[in-house]
Amino acid sequence: MLFPVVLVVLQLVATKVNSQGTVFDIRKYGAAAGGDVSEALMKAWKDAIASPTPCQILIPKGDWTLSQAHMAGPNKSPINLVVEGNLKAYPDPAKLPVKTYEWVTINYVNFLTISGGGVFDGQGKQAWAANDCNKNKNCAKLPINLSLNFINNSVIQDVTTKDSKNFHVNCISSGNVTFKNFKVSAPEESINTDGIHIARSDKITVIDTVIETGDDCISMGDELTNVLIKNVKCGPGHGISIGSLGKNPQEKDIKGITVQNCTFTNTQNGIRIKTWPSAPAVLTISDLHFLDLTMVNTSSPIIFDQQYCPWNLCSLDKPSNIQISDVEIANIKGTSATSEVLTFSCSSSKPCQGVKVGAVDLTYVGSEPEPTTTRCENFKPVLSGTQKPALCDAAAKPKPKAQPK
Question: Which residues form the active site (predicted)?
Answer without folding.
Answer: 238
